[in-house]
């Protein structure tokens, strides 16, 4: 559905100006005032996701730093910092009309120079930006409220890449002349959004206060947002149950608690609001590792893992077993017509023997370290299952626990890892969310959530690059089908589960999920009906 909507909007825009209405809240007259206690996990590493797009980072950032557009639950385009968009007939020029009268939180005017600078920065540093803006050859700013993207080739996916959580617009006067990754304002952001950053007491809270000069008056309705982090998963469940916190999403609580929490009269469970970033769980290999560089070893691992058991025992059924890197919900581009690796430990044993990795006297073929993504419990629990499953076929696995900053440095900067498991955000389009992990040109040590496996396949590059500029929906889908077949054959990773995400909220919190990115959006419409 999302792919169809994207195509329809793109076609409608060609040669004409697209003007879009604001979001309409699904409630009665909002009440002004109050404090929203917002729970995230883990504590963010940054509050502006220029390079690090960890879930907590983007979830908080979008309240302060906005994008050009928002997206309705049906992926309809809604105005934010841009109010209109015109695309040329050949798809090689996109002209944005910017909102006038907007000011940064420090009082400086927002202009087209900020947008141009932001896109250039994202293209260079963002883990998805190199692919997202690959076809942008030139950025023109004919006046303060117009931006023209000149393309080397059409980019039909780009219309879906302009939300605040995905492509944040940052102030040029704050970042120009600095290293954007080391700028201190990444931890004290200045944005245009409905909430103004005030304080970050690490390990305790982040305070955002109402922006009295917000362009979309009378929003926001809340006086402030207090962002909390609670390291213990069971304690997070208790905090939601007792009202210590009001709302949170993604991987907050033990999945074993969901039945109990869902039965409580004061709490609600919302599954909408994740269409913008559907997640696929993946086990990623370092292809420079002396063991995992061998395809038969990776195939053996695939045959040693029972996806159904993993879904039932670790993910408690919150998802579906899947076949490749594209989430089945991205239906137009998903195919199940790929190589399948049945759960067959005997086949795994045979492959390892034939690859020359026979069992020693202690029954061990070789030893490797495994680094689970340190978000929630599920990735460490998945690591425990992997350790057990691979141990049965003679691969000794040692689990390593670390905080998010340590994990990012180890996996994406130093590349001192053997294999890892974590979540891959597909994004609203495979070019935006999936390509970054498999495109050889996105092997960028130091950039989080890029091509950490060091996978390189010319046919995959060709298909991904063709899909970047193909405006024929059928041909574009065929490119992605071919991509999935090769990747599943080559196994730079294993993708067992297409994850089902959810938001847990106190029912006094209203209008929290009005967009395709749910609580990742700016929360300007939220109010508390106490």
Low-confidence stretches: 1-17
**Assembly of the depicted chains:** single chain
Strand order of the largest sheet: 9-10-11-2-12-20-13
What is the level-2 CATH architecture name of the domain at 279-499? Roll
Strand portion, in percent? 15-25%
Could you state the CATH homologous superfamily of the domain at 279-499? Dipeptide-binding Protein, Domain 3
Q: Can you identify the CATH class of the domain at 279-499? A: Alpha Beta
What's the number of helices?
Answer: 16
Q: What is the CATH topology assignment of the domain at 279-499?
A: Dipeptide-binding Protein, domain 3
Structural class: alpha+beta
| Radius of gyration from the alpha-carbon trace, in angstroms | 23 Å
User: How many strand elements?
Assistant: 22
**DSSP helix fraction:** 25-40%
Q: How would you describe the shape?
A: globular
Q: Distance between termini?
A: 37 Å
């Amino acid at each position: 559905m999302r792919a169809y909507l994207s195509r329809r909007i793109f076609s409608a825009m060609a040669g004409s100006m697209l003007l879009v209405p604001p979001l309409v809240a699904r409630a009665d007259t909002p009440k002004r005032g109050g404090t929203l206690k917002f729970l995230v996990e883990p504590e963010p590493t940054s509050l502006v996701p220029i390079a690090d797009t960890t879930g907590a980072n983007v979830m908080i950032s979008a309240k302060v730093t906005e994008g050009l557009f928002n997206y309705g639950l049906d992926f309809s385009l809604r105005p934010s910092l841009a109010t209109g968009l015109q695309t040329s007939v050949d798809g090689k020029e996109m002209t944005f009309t910017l909102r006038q009268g907007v000011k940064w939180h420090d009082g400086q005017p927002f202009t087209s120079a900020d947008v141009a600078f932001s896109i250039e920065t994202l293209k260079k540093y963002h883990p998805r930006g190199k692919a997202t803006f690959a076809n942008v050859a030139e950025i023109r700013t004919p006046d303060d409220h117009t931006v023209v993207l000149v393309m080397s080739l059409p980019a039909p996916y780009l219309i879906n890449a302009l939300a605040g959580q995905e492509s944040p617009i940052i102030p040029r006067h704050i970042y120009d002349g600095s290293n954007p990754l080391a700028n201190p304002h990444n931890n004290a952001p200045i944005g245009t959004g409905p909430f103004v950053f005030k304080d970050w007491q690490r390990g305790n809270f982040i305070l955002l206060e109402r922006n009295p000069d917000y362009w979309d008056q009378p929003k926001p309705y809340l006086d402030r947002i207090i962002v909390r982090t609670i390291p213990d998963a069971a304690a997070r469940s208790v905090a939601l149950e007792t009202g210590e916190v009001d709302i949170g999403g993604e991987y907050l609580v033990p999945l074993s608690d969901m039945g109990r929490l869902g039965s409580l009269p004061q709490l609600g469970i919302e599954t909408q609001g994740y269409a913008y970033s559907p997640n696929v769980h993946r086990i990623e290999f370092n292809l420079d590792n002396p063991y995992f560089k061998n395809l038969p070893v990776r195939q053996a691992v695939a045959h040693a893992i029972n996806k159904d058991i993993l879904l039932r025992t670790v993910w408690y059924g919150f998802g579906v077993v899947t076949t490749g890197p594209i989430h089945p919900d991205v239906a137009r581009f998903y195919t199940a017509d790929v190589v399948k690796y049945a759960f067959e430990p005997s086949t795994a044993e045979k492959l390892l023997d034939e690859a020359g990795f026979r069992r020693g006297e202690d029954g061990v073929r070789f030893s490797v370290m495994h680094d689970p993504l340190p978000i929630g419990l599920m990735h460490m629990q998945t690591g425990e299952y992997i350790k057990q499953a691979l141990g049965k076929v003679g691969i000794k696995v040692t689990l390593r626990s670390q905080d998010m900053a340590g994990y990012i440095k180890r996996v994406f900067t130093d590349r001192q890892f053997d294999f890892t498991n974590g979540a891959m955000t597909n994004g609203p389009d495979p070019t935006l969310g999936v390509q970054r992990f498999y495109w050889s040109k996105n092997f960028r040590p130091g950039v989080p959530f890029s091509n950490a496996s060091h996978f390189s396949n010319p046919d995959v590059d060709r298909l991904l690059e063709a899909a970047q500029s193909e405006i024929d929906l059928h041909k574009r889908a065929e490119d992605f089908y071919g991509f999935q077949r090769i990747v599943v054959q080559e196994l730079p990773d294993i993708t067992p589960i297409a994850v089902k995400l959810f938001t847990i909220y106190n029912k006094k919190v209203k209008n929290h999920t009005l967009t395709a990115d749910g609580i990742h959006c700016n929360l300007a419409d939220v109010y508390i009906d106490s």
